[in-house]
Structure formats: C-alpha cells, structure tokens
TrEMBL record:
Residues 1-18 form the signal peptide. This is DUF4139 domain-containing protein. Residues 30-138 form the DUF4140 domain. It comes from Pseudogemmobacter faecipullorum. The keyword S-adenosyl-L-methionine does not apply. InterPro entries: CHP02231 (IPR011935), DUF4139 (IPR037291), DUF4140 (IPR025554).
Length: 540
C-alpha cells in the first residue's frame, strides 16, 4: 500500500507543489466611461522552468472583482483557472512607487541637513554658555589672597582675572556672531525638509490595501513572459465641461471651449497611463424595455357615497394597489447614436479620490443668431439668447457650462445633448438695459385691469419694454392668454399690435411679438382677453 501511494504521489501533478511566481502589475491603459472604467494592466514575470506554475499578482486594488476580468498572455504560456485572494497574502515590503523612492531619498538627505544645521546651532550655544559661566565665576571671585601676598602678587592675580574675563567675553561675542548664520542655515534646512516632505506626500504611491490574483499557468519553456489583465470598475467617471462665450460684434458668434473632468476612486493611483474617454455606457440598460399586457375593464358607475368611502382607504391601501402592477424598468440617462471616444496623446496621472483631472477637447466656433427674449409677466429685464448650430463633426455631450457674454461671466447652465449639425439655444444672462413692465390700467370704477361678473371675466394688460442702452436689440416678447377646450366656455382675445406668432410650438395661448428696439426707444403692447360661460357654471 505504501509503495502504491508513493508511486501515485510521484506521478500526479499537485497544484500545491507548483512553483509560485510572485509579480506586480503596471496599469498601462484606462478607458473611462460616464459610469465606470476598463483597466488594462501588464504583468511581467519569469517562469523558472517549463511546466505548471502558480502566478501570484500582489497589487490589485481591494475592490477588484473577478467576474469581469480577462487574461491574455504571450506565446508559450497557457492560463487556467484564476481567483482573487484577500487573506493569507505574502508580505510585499514597503509599497512605494519609483518616484516615491526618489522623493524619499531626497527627504532623508534634507532631514540629515536639518540635523547637521541643528547641531551647529547647539555647538555655538554651548560655546556661549561655557564662556558666560567663566565670566560669572571670575567676576564673582571672592577667594582670600595668598598669605603674605605682596603688591606684585595681588597685581598678578588681578591681571589674571581681568585677562581671563576678557578672553571669555571675546568667546561669547565670537560664538554669538557665529550663531546667526547657523540659525539661518537651520531655518533654510527646515524649509527644505518641509518641501521635500510635501513633495513626497503629494506623489501617487502603490496601494497598501490590496487583493492578490492567483493564476494557474502552464509554461512551454523557462523564460520571461508578459500577461495582460483587463478588468472593470464602477468607481470612475468622466463628464463634459464647457466654457461658452457669446460675442455679438459685427455678426453673432459662439465659441465653445470643450473639456472633460475625470474622477476615479478605484483604491489606487493611476500613474502614467494612456487615457481613453468613451461615451458608451456598458453599465446601463442594454436591451429594450418590456411591455406588459394592459387589460381594461368596465364597471358600474360608482355613487358619490362609495367614492368617499374609497378615499378613506388611505395611502397604505393605495400603495398596495400600485404594487400589483409590474414595476417599470428604469434606465440611466444615455446618449443615442454612435459612441464617441476621445484618446489622449500623452500619459496622464489621476490620484485616487483626491482630484478631478481636467483635459481639453478643443474649441468650436459657430455663427449665432442673438436676440433679447422678454417675458414681462415674470421678469423685470430681458435676457440675451443665442441660437446656433453644432458645426463640428461630433456631438456635444450633456454637461455643465459656464456662460460668458462679451468676456464677462454671466451665469451657468447645462448643455443638453446636441448632435452634429443640430441647432440649440442658450440664454446668456440678463440685459439690464432692457427694462420690462406689465401694468393693468384702472377702469372707470377703480378696478385694476380685471372686470368680472357671475358668468364673464375680462382682463387688459399693457406690456412695455424700454431700451435704456446705447445699442439696438432684436426682441422676442412673450406673453399668454387662457384657452378653452369646452364649447360652452368662450374665450376671445385681442392685441395691439398683433402678435407675430400664436400657439408657440403647439402650446395653446402662448404668443410672441418680434421687433427691433432701437437705443433709447420703447415699445408698448396692449393685450386683452374675455371669458364667458353659461349661468349656473363655475369658472375653474
């Protein structure tokens, strides 16, 4: 039996007996989506011999998931099962990047300089204390004179005390003179140490909280090899950002400076990576929504008493009835059409969780039609509005924008998705020189603008816009009158001058007047409407 067991052990390949090859990875490429990112890592290692081995990659972030991971390798290397290991990991040593290693050496040299400068200051302080102690002793000397001391001996003793006191005082002066440059050198060394420490702390380092990737591999021969790891994370995003400037000049023009903000909280710094930004949303809805059969039924008309009883069922019963219907599938906002991808020609650094990297996408200039839009019933001033076409070959993606008019920041807005060749509108702040009022003149009986009876209501309003500035403006003034969908509710209205357009964009009752308002000029519009309905009916 023992002989059989020994033979089986000698001929059976056991994974636990395979050589373990420890290696680290380097992030080479990152594709960031509006929600999430694809990380590509390169692992270089050396297979000690042909055959089965276990590759242990010891620097993946702690939040890495194996479900969406792919492995690829060079020739002569076959990869089998792999897993992530978060416990019982081998020690990695100090997790420092090469840049941090260099900065750490500079910090150590700066600290040594500070210690040497401090020692020089302490040395001068010691000289001062020793010399001052000598002076104190000599000036306070009260010992008795030698027995039978004559004048000459007394003179020699006094001379000795005087000369030693003078020498000690000169030592104090010399030490104090040497102390000033020593203190200045210490302060400079401390500043250099603080700067070196700040430089060290600011550098992206390797992740300390990590997960290990364990891969079973089969090497055709001993030698160097490279494995590529591709995995996906959700803790990253990018969003467009715009600086949009409007200039009227001889002809209206809109300049769009495009950029993006990239943020990541993956648990590790991205250092020197090739960055690609994609508008694809792999984490969003990828299939059409599902429609459920919609049954309709009829029932006897419910009497008022039953309706009141039903209302008393309360919110809980109503919620139960709503829950019976299938829940709709909700999707994140996405873009339609082809995916837009931006690749950057230079490697970038993005630290984990501490910065938004802003990258430029280039500038677009396009002609614009600029008008002043006035809504007297709501606003006190008109607002500049530009209509322009996206003349670039790619869409303008949804994103926040800062708005400038003639070089002055006037506000912010959100630019909606604008396809290539599509037209859009943006407002560029209030025009304080175009003042608006909407007054209702007094009637004969002192009522202000409104006349009402039991089955009739009428209103008259005077809309006014004044141009207090020094330039003419094309104006589009907006107001409204009520409308009716009932045959018995009659509504008539009149305006002087007549509106240029009614029922704007299919919205009934909305009206617009278009005209040019010269500098110093004003424009008044009289707008009236009347409602009438049968006796016994109530206006709502």
């Amino acid at each position: 039996m023992r002989i059989l067991l020994a033979a089986l052990l000698a001929t059976t390949a056991l994974p636990a007996w395979a050589d373990t090859i420890s290696a680290t990875s380097r992030i080479t490429d990152v594709t960031v989506y509006p929600d999430g990112a694809k990380i590509t890592r390169e692992v270089r290692f050396t297979a000690p011999a042909a055959g089965s081995h276990e590759l242990l990659v010891t620097d993946l972030p702690a939040r890495t998931e194996a479900g969406m991971m792919q492995l690829a390798g060079g020739e002569g290397m076959a990869y089998g099962a792999f897993s992530l290991r978060a416990d019982r990991l081998p020690p990695r040593g100090e997790a420092l990047s090469p840049e941090q290693q260099a900065a750490k050496s500079e910090l150590a040299a700066a600290r040594a300089d500070t210690a040497a400068a401090l020692a020089a200051v302490e040395k001068t302080d010691a000289r001062i204390r020793a010399a001052e102690a000598q002076i104190t002793f000599l000036t306070s000397f009260s010992g008795g004179l030698p027995e039978n001391a004559g004048p000459e001996q007394i003179r020699d003793l006094a001379g000795m005390i005087g000369s030693e006191t003078l020498r000690a005082a000169e030592e104090v002066a010399s030490a104090r003179q040497a102390r000033l440059p020593a203190v200045e050198a210490l302060e400079e060394a401390q500043r250099a140490e603080a700067e070196a420490e700040a430089a060290f702390d600011s550098l992206p380092g390797l992740d300390r909280d990590y997960t290990a990737l364990v891969v079973a591999l089969e090497a055709a021969a001993a030698g160097d090899s490279t494995m590529t790891i591709t995995h996906y994370i959700s803790e990253a995003q990018w969003q467009p950002f715009y600086d949009i400037s409007l200039s009227r000049g001889a002809a209206g023009k809109v300049t769009i400076d495009r950029s993006v903000l990239v943020t990541q909280n993956s648990g590790e710094d991205w250092t020197g990576v090739n960055l690609t930004l994609s508008s694809s949303r792999p984490s969003s809805q990828s299939a059409p929504s599902t429609l459920w059969p919609m049954a309709r039924r009829i029932e006897k008309e419910t009497p008022p008493e039953a309706l009141l009883k039903r209302e008393r069922l309360g919110a809980e019963a109503a919620a139960d009835m709503v829950a019976m219907a299938p829940a709709p599938i909700m999707a994140l906002a996405g873009m339609e059409g082809e995916t837009v991808v931006y690749s950057y020609p230079r490697a970038v650094n993005i630290a984990d969780g501490v910065e938004d990297l802003r990258l430029a996408l280039g500038q677009i200039e396009t002609a614009a039609e600029v008008i002043a839009v006035a809504v007297p019933s709501r606003d006190k001033t008109a607002f500049a509005q530009a209509s322009f076409t996206n003349t670039s070959a790619e869409p303008l993606l949804p994103g926040a924008a800062l708005l400038y008019r003639e070089g002055v920041l006037v506000g912010s807005a959100r630019l909606e998705m604008t396809a290539a060749g599509a037209e859009t509108e943006l407002a560029f702040g209030a025009l304080e020189s175009l003042r608006l009022t909407r007054d209702m003149p007094l009637r004969d009986q002192g009522q202000k603008g409104v006349f009402s009876t039991s089955n009739q209501l009428s209103e008259t309003a005077i809309l006014k816009i004044e141009n207090l500035g020094s330039e003419a403006w094309p104006v589009r003034l907006l107001d409204q009158v009520p409308y009716s969908e009932q045959q018995d509710l009659k509504i008539t209205h009149s305006a002087s001058p007549a509106a240029s357009e009614v029922d704007l964009k299919g919205q009934r009752g909305l009206m617009a007047w278009e005209f040019t308002l010269d500098a110093g000029a004003s424009q008044e519009i009289s707008l009236s409407y009347e409602l009438s309905w049968p006796e016994g009916m109530v206006l709502r």
